[in-house]
Amino acid sequence: MDAKPRFTERKYLLILLFMALLFMLWGLALTLGDVLNRHFQNVLHVSKSRSSLVQLSMFGAYAVMGIPAGIFMKKFGYKNGVLLGLFLYAAGAFLFIPAADVESFNFFRFALFILACGLATLETVAHPFVAWLGDQRTSDQRINFSQAFNGLGGVIGPLVGSYFILKAGQEHSNDLVSVKHLYIVIGSVIAIIGVAFAFVKVPVLNDPHQTSAVPDVATALTHTDKKLFQHKHFVFAAIAQLFNVAAQGGTWAYFINYGHEIMHMSDEKAGYFFSLSMIMMVVGRSVGTVVMRYIAPNKLLAAFALCNIMMCLIVAQGFGWVSFIALLFINFFFSIMFPTIFSLGLKDMGRKTQQAASFIVMGVVGGGIFPPLMGLVANQNVATAYYVPIICYAVIFLFGYTYNKLNKNTL
């Protein structure tokens, strides 16, 4: 094997760029959900804890679709998996039309659930797909590269949402018409992309996880013959991912509330700062992709988790701009966590890679569990609510710190 494995092969470049586009599209959808969280508080007059059911509807879909999407992908292939995900994404977006017409919070939650079933399908397919597009030793770099586009979508989401939904003084800032129009556009764009992808030729792939770099053949056979849940590094990765997305869901859900209540900003201005925090995440992923060439991914993950424990402590004090800047930096240190946990969990899983990916995707349900818990605290004080994610980052630190012991095949 090459001393310095390539990032990817030339023949995979087009498909890798298309997958990066998909990462961007679901990043946009997820952060738009956080804008909707605040808008529903204003227009439908729901409390912070009840509005967090938006996150539960979206991230709960991952628990429902994780395994079915993996089974579908295994039976019908990656391309059809992507097409299914795009179909559900577009269908959920178009369901916003009747939801807005009847002004029903529960109908919106149903539409978001269908949309998120599409996102869950795309994530289940995309991560192992990107991991397959080259040498396994560079799979961390490819997934972090793709996740940088996810961060770009995360930047675009709150920018679009703040301008078209939260902007004060515009004609439909206090109703749901702008929401309906925005999601009609989104649904149409996703449908067009789905048609375009149907004509993309997916090359024959060699699974890098089947030929992973391990000390010897005997070790490789022993490792890949294990049952799924005997792979300790995979099991801890699934747990770490649940807590990771729990921290993400809670942090994002109340970012605009923090800007409004602690920093005394308008919702629109707080939304623009939310977009800035997503730029911090893009920068973090770009930096992380480079740094991983010199520092082991699991060690960098542990270091970033410790940094976010410190950031949460500062945010929870409500120290004005000092705390608000710390809130922005949470996304910088959060940046590499999702893709790195995912990639580390899939290493050396052999034939069980697709099945393992399904379970790790299911961990995303954590993003629906923590926001309601944080909402109960945020109803009293939104700054104090940021103590809660510290639990999550402690679990992530332990995963990164103990990873080499968990995965005996780590070189």
UniProtKB/TrEMBL annotation:
One of its GO terms (cellular component) is plasma membrane. SUPFAM superfamilies: MFS general substrate transporter (SSF103473). The chain crosses the membrane at residues 12-33, 53-73, 80-98, 110-133, 145-166, 181-200, 234-255, 270-288, 300-319, 325-344, 356-378, 384-403. Pfam families: MFS_1. CDD domains: MFS_FucP_like. It is a multi-pass membrane protein. Gene3D superfamilies: MFS general substrate transporter like domains (1.20.1250.20). Residues 15-408 form the Major facilitator superfamily (MFS) profile domain. Keywords: Cell membrane, Membrane, Transmembrane, Transmembrane helix. This is L-fucose:H+ symporter permease. One of its GO terms (molecular function) is fucose:proton symporter activity. InterPro entries: Lfuc_symporter_FucP (IPR005275), MFS (IPR011701), MFS_dom (IPR020846), MFS_trans_sf (IPR036259), MFS_TsgA-like (IPR050375). It is found in: Cell inner membrane. PROSITE patterns: MFS. Coiled coil: none annotated.
